[in-house]
Amino acid sequence: MRISDIKARQVFDSRANATVEVDVILADGSVGRGTVPSGASTGIYEVLELRDGGKELGGKSVRKAIGNVLNEIAPRIIGLDAEDQRGIDQLMIELDGTENKSRLGANAILGVSMAVARASAASRRVPLFRYLGGTNARTIPVPMIQIIGGGAHALHSIDVQDFLVIPLSFGTFWEGFEAVVNVYNATKKIFMELGRPTAIADEGGFWPSSFKTNEEGLEILTEGIRRAGYKPGVDLGIALDIASSEFYDKEKKKYIFHLENKEFSTSEFVDLLCSWVDKYPIVSIEDGTSELDWEGSVLITEKLGGRIQLIGDDLFTTNIERIRNGVKLGALNAVLIKMNQIGTITETMDAIEFTKNSGYLPVVSARSGETEDDTIVHLAIATNAGQLKVGSVARTERAVKWNETIRMEELLGRDGVYPGKAIFDQIKK
To answer: 3-125 architecture in CATH?
Structure first.
């Protein structure tokens, strides 16, 4: 299981941006590959994605990060036991020596971390989820799937970033996913009937040509569920990724819907979200308040925390210390988990474990700039996280992850557990 060689290259993600890809080769010939994702709406507390600047690829080339893999990381870990995932991840953290992985680049470190895990799984000839999670890894995640994209994923054509659905009344991942596909196609027909051309947003959801209000997205999605033959709030619920940090004015301390030319104080904005929950079958809200607005996160939890899932993404950035602070304050009840927000496999798994032990729900998530890498599927199963957010049902970089989940559900068979709507039981009071 000794590492014998490491290769790294510049490849491209689903937004045509350069990203880091790493191959780790073991002494027995096993190869593991990690291809690093990239976000568009990134939190200010995330670790640093190292890019080159300058003229090449609009400043987004990653040759410095690749050089760090080959010239600094590789000489230190070649010859080490690849199964010592924690030791290798910790060595890279110490080699970087910064709090936000800015010297070597979190993208360089994560690419190696992913590839090491993949190589070890390949050497053992087991699925990655089994290698990372052992025999206890058996929970097939409930999907959270984008139908309409907005915000930074669709050039801010609508302020709310994602309108998603979560299957509730289905006994398997396959059945739930099939229902979501039906909702996706039904919603497409509604847009056509309304005479509103749609492009495809960064994560595969519909990119509307025009909306008058943000609430229209909720109206159309609810109707899409009905048109597909399902009961809103019974068979499928709605999830929103507000991504409110994107339109929070920190000077004014106001939330600004540019589409509607409206400004809201924290309490007014929370009241607006509460009114949407009363009116529509919403079961989950992500980043309902800004990463700078801890008071708002506590307020929305006081008003909605016993009714629906409230996810922190930019607020927590997969960082245990930030999650710990949220738990202490009573802010939200779930954490979005993104590998490239923290930078290594082991730190990501630690964040999931801490989240679960704190009574919060982890939601493993992709990024808007994705690749054909399906590591997050195995990470969700390995940790029994229970939920997976990948984007929509369209675009190959999304489909490869959903298709891998279908395969793993089949592989687990009767040993697998699909929680369905029961995943939300612990947040109900």
So the answer is: 2-Layer Sandwich (3.30)
Mean pLDDT of 293-311: 97
5 against 208, higher pLDDT: 5
* Residues 29-40: tens digit of each pLDDT: 999 999 999 987
Going by C-alpha positions, the residue among 147, 264, 273 that lies closest to residue 208 is: 147
Q: Cα–Cα distance between 133 and 379 in angstroms, integer?
A: 8
pLDDT tens, 366-405? 998 999 999 999 999 999 999 999 999 999 999 999 999 9
Give backbone dihedrals phi and psi of 258, rounded to 5 degrees, phi first.
-70, -35
**Closest to 337 (Cα-Cα) out of 234, 328, 238, 354:** 354
pLDDT at 260 over 70: yes
What residue ranges of the chain are covered by domains with CATH 3.20.20.120? 135-427
Is the pLDDT reported for residue 96 higher than 70?
yes
- DSSP class of 69: I
Running DSSP on this structure, what letter comes out for residue 49?
-
CA pair distance 14, 370, nearest whole angstrom = 5
Cα–Cα dist 336/328, whole Å: 18
pLDDT of residue 41: 66
Q: How far apart are CA 141 and CA 242, in angstroms?
A: 22
Q: Does 11 or 1 have the greater pLDDT score? A: 11
User: pLDDT tens digits for 153-203?
Assistant: 667 788 999 999 999 999 999 999 999 999 999 999 999 999 987 888 889
Q: Where in the chain is the domain with CATH 3.30.390.10?
A: 3-125
In 168-308, where do the E strands start and end?
Answer: 198-200, 206-208, 236-241, 248-249, 254-257, 262-264, 282-286
The residues annotated as belonging to the active site are 203, 338
Helix (H) or strand (E) holding 326: helix 320-329
Cβ–Cβ under 8 Å, residues 118 and 24: yes
What CA–CA distance (Å, rounded) separates 407 from 213?
A: 40
Strand, helix or coil for residue 365? strand
List, in order, residues 6 or more apart from 25 with CB less than 8 Å away.
Answer: 3, 4, 5, 6, 7, 31, 119
Q: Give whole-number Cα distances, 194 to 121, 185, 218, in Å.
A: 50, 15, 15
Q: What average pLDDT does the segment 133-149 reach?
A: 97
CATH numeric code, 135-427: 3.20.20.120
The answer to whether 151 and 162 have CB atoms below 8 angstroms apart is yes
Q: Which of 395, 418, 396, 404 is nearest to 376 (CA)?
A: 404
3-state secondary structure of 171: coil
For residue 359 the two structure tokens come to 């009574």
